[in-house]
Amino acid sequence: NIDHFKPVSIRSGLPYYIFGSENSHDNDILVLLKDYQKPATYVECQKLMNKFTYEFQDLHCFESDKPININLAVLTDGIITWVLKGNPDEANNGILRTYHLHKQYHSLEIQRLVPRDIEKKIIRATRSILSQLTKSERRHNIKNALKANQLYSRLDALKPICFQELNFKQSEKDLTEIVKLIAFQLGQTMALVKENIELYTKIQVAEYDPRLKQYLMRESGCNLEILTQVKNEYVAMIEHMFVQQPELRMKAEVLVTD
Fold first, then answer.
1. pTM for the model
2. What's the fold here for domain 2-101?
3. Is 83 helix (H, G, I), strand (E, B) or coil?
């Protein structure tokens, strides 16, 4: 197959999609690879994403100067079966649901929605939230919980946190971004678990839970008590699931780090 000899390059015509919120501060891009093009290690994936970033900048692909945030994916039989960052089912459905919100440069090759893996979403969302707190004064407990890589340990670390009392040791701009990311994960995951509703933009999450709007839209001077309240509801939701599904407590995340 002559395609095997083509360079793995944006210039050579690799398909890519812009996805996510229509008012995003970044260009979130998913680049589709063939399975044989997928790097063997995480380090090689990082190098490939860096290469793509330089290519996008050199080619002036986008009308704005927003930061470029790249993810890699493999498409098999019309659905995403592997992504470097995130879960394949969320990436698959997220592209399908937000493709139309952005100017695109390639036709959509993803053919259908797929069922969501709710357990994996909970595990990843909990890790994502904790990862935003690793520079606060609770960093030692949080890092230990992340290393433990069991859902109940991570939930135990998240449960006592009061966002309004934390010293994040970051600039106001960085704190606003952290709070936005936490709010998005909380709202998106609770909608999926409680009502099987899939949300892929900040506007959708804000409409689902208006309490989160101030954080999602990066409003200044937000009172973080409400975010703590929503976090507590998130923890209670998962603890209730532990009663129904005891095996969920010990679930671990499969991380690609080599």
1. 0.90
2. Alpha-Beta Plaits (3.30.70)
3. strand
